[in-house]
Amino acid sequence: MASGVLTQSDLQGSLPLVSRGKVRDIYQIDDQTLLFVTTDRISCHDVILARGIPNKGALLSLITVHWFKILAAAIPGLRTHFITLDLPEQIPVNVRAQYQNRSMQVRKLEVFQIEAIVRGYITGSAWASYRKDGTVCGIQIQPGLRESEAFPMGPIYTPSTKAAVGHKDENIHPDKAKEIIGARYAERIEELALSLYRHAAAYAHERGIIIADTKFEFGLDKETDEVVLVDEVLTPDNSRFWPADRYKVGESPPSFDKQLLRDWLTNHGLAGKEGVTMSDEVMEKTEEIYKEAFERLTGRTWSATLADKAI
User: Fold this and answer.
1) Spatial contact of 185 and 151, defined as CB atoms under 8 Å apart
2) If you compute the radius of gyration of the chain from its CA atoms, what whole number of angstroms results?
3) What is the 3-state secondary structure (H, E, C) of 54-78?
4) Residue 2: predicted pLDDT
């Protein structure tokens, strides 16, 4: 596995490029199969930074595949779009090492245009909204909660719209999600997202991580009319991970995610600005944070993973 920073993929014309997102570049293998290439790009405040994080793409891909296996075993009937980490034969030999373990073959599905956000603890934008009017995404929450406290009624589902690159997602009430994608699919997605969160939160807590909130994405298998779990799952990029041993109600704990970078951008007046290059220190510390999340969740050291050609 290559150890450099890959901020934009180049498969040398071997596969047609479908799209480039904030982090992933998507290629078409055939009519039913896509190749997701997870780059080392990193975005904050809906802006992609000029510099990436070493090994980030491989870390995110391998965490996602780990979760696919854990959750599929825990939830009967759960379907994911994942096929294999093996590279398709079309990828040129001279670049295969660079893309191994940061790429996955997946089923091509119609992706629902909402993001399924689940919040187990009141923090971030949810805390800001609650302090303002006692609601989170239009949902009335009981009074008296403190920052970072678990929702007394259990995790809540607060979907958002799926904005194009460079635009902001919009938090919406679950009823609005029903208007966008239809009540039957919206209800199934809500049910699945909450179940996924509960299983994942229990698994992570046993490994010293609190999943404060996360987001899932789903696609539709039109042949079977089934809702399928897609994209990345429960990574430091799309979740808020807290170390359980440093968690305290009433405080904002440190995170195994992008919070260090968010804070650096905010403190330097750079939040939301284009073309920002993070410092060496922030880049290196962020890589270490992602590695620690990987190691806690998978039970494997990153160095052992790099040495294991069988992954």
Assistant:
1) no
2) 19
3) CCHHHHHHHHHHHHHHHHHHHCCCC
4) 39
Cα–Cα distance for residue pair 228/192, rounded to 1 Å? 10
Q: How many angstroms separate the CA atoms of 195 and 203, rounded? A: 12
Query: Residue 83 to residues 36, 106, 107, 235: CA-CA distances in angstroms?
Result: 11, 5, 7, 19
Low-confidence ranges of the chain (pLDDT < 70): 1-3, 163-167, 309-311
Q: Are the CB atoms for 17 and 25 separated by under 8 Å?
A: yes
Spatial distance between the Cα atoms of 215 and 203, rounded to a whole number of angstroms: 17
Residue 189: name the closest of 215, 170, 169, 164 by CA: 215
Q: pLDDT tens digit string along 132-155?
A: 999 999 999 999 999 999 999 999
pLDDT of 228-247, one tens digit each? 999 999 999 999 999 999 99
- Quote the strand ranges of the chain, DSSP E: 17-20, 24-30, 33-38, 43-44, 47-48, 82-84, 103-107, 110-111, 114-119, 135-136, 139-140, 156-157, 160-161, 209-221, 226-230, 239-243
Q: What is the pLDDT of residue 165?
A: 59
What backbone torsions phi and psi does residue 14 show, to the nearest 5 degrees? -75, -25
Q: What pLDDT score was predicted for residue 148? A: 98
Sole residue written with tokens 């009433």? 250
Q: What is the pLDDT of residue 170?
A: 87
Tokens in use for 252? 């904002």
pLDDT for 31: 97
To the nearest 10 degrees (0 to 180), the angle between helices 183-205 and 174-181 is 130
- Eight-state DSSP code of residue 244: G
